[in-house]
């Protein structure tokens, strides 16, 4: 090789290193700007200023790079800055992992996100006194603490059963009280958020309302624990920001709940995205649950889904249980009987014992040690039937 080429290459390398230093100095300034913008409550991105900057660069360009190349290179630099600023902002969220250690959500002495595996079970909708009483009695006898049932139902069809509203809330409160159960029920509007807070132990925000920021603020203001479902097409970032709205408004007792996302697959009602469980646990301080019923939309695969949810780190699962699913007024095709729920609980426990036993001798101290101990802890905490 010619020494001339070597010299030129060395110079290019030197210039690149120099450029890198300059780019990182620029990135530091961008972070300073981001902090100031956060203080002022201003948006991170300012397209008007970006466009002005690109024009100015092109006007001052002496070549040989042409104008489109200058624009493309600086567009890349601007995008990298925004990615950096957004990353820092997410790390700065109150609900984000960097804000402190993971927090369990304790509701009248019972913790979601602690050592005990949690089941939130109950019918899709509150239909009548007998239905609710049978569900509550059956589930309480199985050791379930958190009883779910909807009074305000966000239905796809406006002609479908819309729920019993306030009357349903009263029925739920009274029935749960008779059996020592804690209640989880959905608020669907800023109009019913305060009433739901008055009657329920945990306010649910449904998938359809994850982006309803007025509602998120309204439930946050009640100071009650909130179970926040993931929207059908929500990214982790959007989900955590929805939680941040609640936290900023006054309630930091928030539980995340994956409930399936929309994909091309038609075999299930939604596609259960289990990848989000470890990702949400790593990115946030909040407990993470999995609603297997709304993800599957069918009865026959709930047990393996629940097992998988626990195995990959979920703190609990939500299951729709109805005393007689065939006559349910909503989501009948996915609700299971109390007997089938008992079998699911048993099968999940046994599955976790098997998994813990299979994994533990292999490498309990290695990188999967945490995973193994999570599974073993859940298996033991669940007790043997
Ligand atoms: C529900 O849990 O009752 C419900 C409607 O779920 P999602 O919002 O996840 O569809
Ligand atoms: Mn339902």
Biggest sheet details: 8 strands, parallel, barrel
**Number of E-type strands:** 10
Output the strand order for the largest sheet: 3-4-5-6-7-8-9-10
SSE-based structural type: alpha/beta
> Which term fits the overall shape?
elongated
CATH architecture tag of the largest domain: Alpha-Beta Barrel
CATH class of the largest domain: Alpha Beta
From the alpha-carbon coordinates, what is the Rg to the nearest angstrom? 26 Å
Which stretches are low in confidence, meaning pLDDT under 50 for 5 or more residues running? none
- CATH fold assignment of the largest domain: TIM Barrel
How much helical structure, as a percent, in the residues?
40-55%
Strand content: 5-15%
Order of helices and strands: HHHEEEHEHEHEHEHEHEHHEHH
N/C terminus separation:
76 Å
Catalogue the ligands. phosphoenolpyruvate, manganese (II) ion
Tell me about this structure.
By secondary structure, the chain is an alpha/beta fold. The chain folds into 2 domains: 3-91, Chorismate mutase (Chorismate Mutase Domain, subunit A, Up-down Bundle), CATH 1.20.59; 106-384, Alpha-Beta Barrel (TIM Barrel). Helices cover 50% and strands 11% of the residues. The chain contains 13 helices and 10 strands. The chain has helices at 3-40, 47-59, 67-91, 129-141, 166-178, 193-199, 213-222, 236-249, 276-283, 292-296, 302-311, 338-359, 369-382, and strands at 105-107, 110-112, 118-122, 146-148, 182-186, 202-205, 226-229, 254-258, 288-291, 316-320. Strands 3-4-5-6-7-8-9-10 form an 8-stranded parallel β-barrel, surrounded by 7 helices. Strands 1-2 form a two-stranded antiparallel sheet. β1 and β2 form a beta hairpin. The mean pLDDT is 93. The site of manganese (II) ion (MN) has 5 residues, from loops.
